[in-house]
Amino acid sequence: DGLAGHWKEPDNGLWEIRGPRRHFTHSRIMVWVAFDSAIEAVEQHGLDGPADRWHEIRDEVGAEILERGYDSDRGTFVQHYDTTEVDASLLLIPAVGFLPGDDPRFLGTISAIEQDLMREGLVLRYRTETNVDGMDSGEHPFLACSFWLVTAYAYAGRIDDAHALMRRLVGLANDVGLMSEEYDPVEKRMVGNFPQAFSHLGLAGAALAIARAEESGGTIRQGRPI
Q1: CATH code, residues 2-213
Q2: How many Cα atoms are found within 13 Å in the side-chain-facing hemisphere of 68?
Q3: Sign of dihedral through CA atoms 44, 45, 51, 54?
Q4: Which of 132, 142, 149, 150 could form a disulfide with 206 if both were Cys (CB 3.0 to 4.6 A apart)?
Q5: Reported confidence tier of residue 226, pLDDT bands at 50, 70, 90
Q6: 17 Ramachandran zone, left/alpha/beta (phi>0; psi -120 to 50)
């Protein structure tokens, strides 16, 4: 009920970006996920709740995301409404069940992120040059985001690409298998918080996605066309 009354409000996004609050696409997707999960809890697991109302809200949220969080000219989902910039969090779209991994809108999002956010084969969170967070540019690639690209490749059926990037990322760990928050591909060293649980969670999720894709013989059919 609390979310039903507040989901239309802007926020600071997954990355807690400084500056004016915005309608971040990833945040809206997670609103959709929350209502979708609540509906499942009622309809499949017998919990109490106004499922009909939640269906209406979930569908409204989904329609808004596709209208305002997707740039049809570029063929990609965007970081927040009213921008053409992308964000690595969009790589999680099929993993959270919003769309299937082979949906053309998601495939276009992968391509846009490869074009805009990859540095030396690794993935930035977003382009700091846009000054969206009011901070100086120059951030290094984020290891969790790079693992999210592995996951995205697996969901999209690009298994060879998933394996190749996974091997590279695992090779960046230190002698006891630990990883930092970011990686400097020029100096070839880990930087930022160390060890970083977020990076290791990304690794686990990527490994699971690859395994599921191989078991299914290709694309992971999670998510639904909307």
Answers
A1: 1.50.10.10
A2: 18
A3: negative
A4: 150
A5: very low
A6: beta
